[in-house]
Write a structure and sequence with these properties.
By secondary structure, the chain is α/β, with parallel strands linked by helices. It is built from twelve helices and nine strands. The protein has two domains: about 200 residues, 3-Layer(aba) Sandwich (Rossmann fold); about 60 residues, Helicase, Ruva Protein, domain 3 (Orthogonal Bundle), CATH 1.10.8.
């Protein structure tokens, strides 16, 4: 069970630690959400799991209780020391490193474990959610991810084309993963309570997962920096000559010349990934 709000405050006081807003330190204090995360992850004995930002160890302990082997990365030195002193000695299946998740997006999960198949379960800080996901999508893909993140970030991940939140990260993620569930999580489930609600997402890797090369990702990002302009004009000016070729092929297939980036369907963006392998 997670610590109650009172117990969380008491432990933070003992550690003389004040939650860091820049690091997105909002600690989960709702047992139902912890159980839901484990249920969605479907992990157990022999599972290989990665956790980002274990904090006080609430989700960490729940993951380990299933018999899974866990690799975790914690940036905050005080919290990392707390985990080393109070969780690690009792849990030989926990592999903890102190560092930035952008430097260690898979918490140094060994390559052989990654290729066997692994899952990610994490309460992601808002500031790192998109760059961290970019890093994850650039390597060996996890079979499943169960992610807690602020609603705005979750909306971008799951956004359909045609919506104002549809953009590069929507394209990269949805080309590799199906969004199978999306649960609203109220701010009161955390201490301290953030100013916005969060969502719990379950993402399952597609059998025909499509990855975007660095060149393709850069091209898509450049286009979406001017999302209100017409796609054709953006492709004409892009540094990748293939971008204009791609757009002209879309027009030949019946895509309107005046279309804007956010209105273009996912499968057409995937054709750009193929062109810029």
């Amino acid at each position: 069970m997670p610590l109650s709000p009172t117990a969380t405050r008491e432990l933070l006081d003992q550690l003389e630690h004040f939650p860091n807003k820049k690091l997105g330190q909002n600690f989960l204090v709702d047992g139902n959400i912890v159980r839901k995360s484990i249920e969605l992850a479907e992990i157990g004995e022999g599972s290989h799991v990665v956790e980002i930002g274990p904090g006080l160890g609430t989700l960490t302990k729940a993951i380990l209780s299933t018999g899974a082997e866990l690799w975790a990365v914690e940036r905050d030195a005080t919290l990392a020391e707390h985990l080393r002193a109070n969780v690690l000695p009792k849990q030989p299946s926990l592999h903890l490193i102190e560092g930035d998740c952008l430097d260690y997006p898979r918490a140094e999960l060994p390559e052989d474990k990654a290729t066997e198949g692994f899952r990610i379960v994490a309460n992601l800080p808002y500031a790192v959610s998109t760059p961290w996901m970019d890093a994850v999508l650039s390597g060996e893909l996890p079979e499943r991810m169960v992610l807690m993140l602020q609603k705005e970030a979750g909306d971008r991940y799951a956004a359909p084309h045609g919506s104002k939140t549809f953009g590069g990260i929507s394209i990269f993620l949805q080309s590799a993963y199906e969004v199978h569930s999306k649960h609203l999580v109220k701010a009161q489930c955390f201490h301290p309570a953030p100013k916005v609600d969060s969502v719990l997402l379950r993402l399952d890797r597609k059998e025909d997962a499509i990855r975007f090369s660095p060149a393709a990702r850069d091209c898509v990002r450049r286009i979406f920096t001017q999302r209100r302009k017409q796609l054709g004009a953006l492709c004409k000016r892009d540094s990748q000559a293939e971008a204009l070729e791609w757009f002209e092929e879309l027009v030949d297939q019946g895509v309107p010349k005046t279309i804007r980036p956010e209105a273009l369907a996912l499968e057409h963006w995937q054709a750009l990934a193929e062109k810029l392998k």
